[in-house]
Design brief:
four-stranded antiparallel β-sheet, single chain
């Protein structure tokens, strides 16, 4: 009801410039986002793209789910926004998002003894934690693809983790998985 009421107010298109005009909602994961034009919504981060503080984001209102926050470049969000543009609202990250969020990385390495231990040490050195790891071994090329789920605070923290992982000489490629 609050969303519909705001849509019909005369100043709906004016961008709020004061902190009092911007509503803050806390997600169940503990990450805060500023939401313009919504009150009392449940907020969740979309699993399809896994947005992190620092990513450009957009919010879609889903019946029974509340507000679902996607990366602005998420293909799922773009398709849904094209079908139902009235369900999408502008959202921004709050400045105090100091919670650990999980994100996935695919790391291609030369499969040598101890490489996983060195990777884990670099992730720890970057003040992060590995929540899950799985591996696909390519016997023909002596490489392995490691699927890591790591905890980070923001996009900037993720960049720091990736830089640390690059210190391992056996690392050939690192990709953030967004879908």
């Amino acid at each position: 009801a609050a969303i519909v009421a705001r849509r019909f107010t005369p100043d709906h298109d004016i961008v709020a410039t004061t902190a009092a005009a911007v509503d803050e909602i806390t997600a169940t994961t503990g990450s805060s986002i500023h939401i313009q034009g919504n009150e009392g919504q449940a907020v969740q981060l979309a699993p399809c793209c896994g947005p992190l503080p620092g990513d450009a984001i957009i919010g879609g209102i889903r019946l029974g789910h509340g507000l679902v926050v996607h990366m602005a470049e998420c293909a799922v969000a773009q398709r849904a926004r094209a079908r139902e543009p009235e369900r999408w609202v502008p959202v921004t990250w709050a400045r105090d998002t100091a919670r650990h969020l999980s994100t996935r990385l695919d790391v291609t390495v030369i499969n040598e003894r101890g490489v996983l231990g060195r990777l884990a040490a670099e992730v720890t050195e970057a003040d992060s934690n590995i929540l899950h790891v799985s591996m696909q071994d390519d016997v023909s090329s002596a490489t392995a693809l490691l699927h890591l789920t790591v905890q980070v605070d923001s996009r900037k923290h993720l960049a720091q983790v990736i830089r640390s992982i690059r210190h391992v000489p056996q690392v050939q490629k690192i990709v953030r998985v967004k879908g």
